[in-house]
Amino acid sequence: PEGRARAATRADRALLVAWVEGFADATGQSKSSAEWLVDEGTERGSLTLWESGGTPAALAGRSRMLAGTVRVTSVYTSPEFRGRGFGAAVTAEASRAARAEGAAEVLLFADLANPTSNGVYLRIGYEPVADRVRLRRDT
């Protein structure tokens, strides 16, 4: 899509916190660490924004490298930009950045019940390797 990737900065903090909280809501995760994740990610330069016309459209983060592996995290597209390829673009850019930093493996977790995101991840080069289940505390 049109636009460009850039590293998120402290100036983006309010938007990033809202988006990380939106990601947590959508995935059933806790929002309690959103501010820490944003502060740590902007300090490390591991949060990538995709901008369209100078407006942030999508976000993807990268974990710290461990044993040559980086995980792409918190992929989120602002609702008004969904369905136009911005999520795919920012995910591909975060994945490229992980490889450029020396990652031998780049992975992400995807919801098998979401055919949209799964299709995107397949198109940009990811392949399924394992299924996981999570036991929620409320069950």
Summed up:
Keywords: Acyltransferase, Transferase. The chain has 139 residues and is an alpha+beta fold.
Write a concise keyword list for the protein shown above:
GNAT family N-acetyltransferase, 4 helices, globular, Acyl_CoA_acyltransferase, alpha+beta, 139 residues, Aminopeptidase, acyltransferase, acyltransferase activity, transferring groups other than amino-acyl groups
Characterise the protein shown here.
Pfam families: Acetyltransf_1. This is GNAT family N-acetyltransferase. GO terms for molecular function: acyltransferase activity, transferring groups other than amino-acyl groups. Residues 3-139 form the N-acetyltransferase domain. InterPro entries: Acyl_CoA_acyltransferase (IPR016181), Bact_Acetyltransf (IPR050832), GNAT_dom (IPR000182). The chain has 139 residues and is an alpha+beta fold. The protein has one domain: Gcn5-related N-acetyltransferase (GNAT) (Aminopeptidase, 3-Layer(aba) Sandwich). Helices cover 36% and strands 22% of the residues. It contains four helices and five strands, in the order βααβββαβα. The protein has helices at 13-27, 34-44, 86-100, 115-123, and strands at 4-7, 47-52, 55-62, 69-77, 105-107. The chain has a five-stranded mixed beta sheet, sandwiched between helices. β4 (69-77), α3 and β5 form a beta-alpha-beta unit. The protein is globular and about 40 Å long. The N and C termini lie far apart (42 Å).
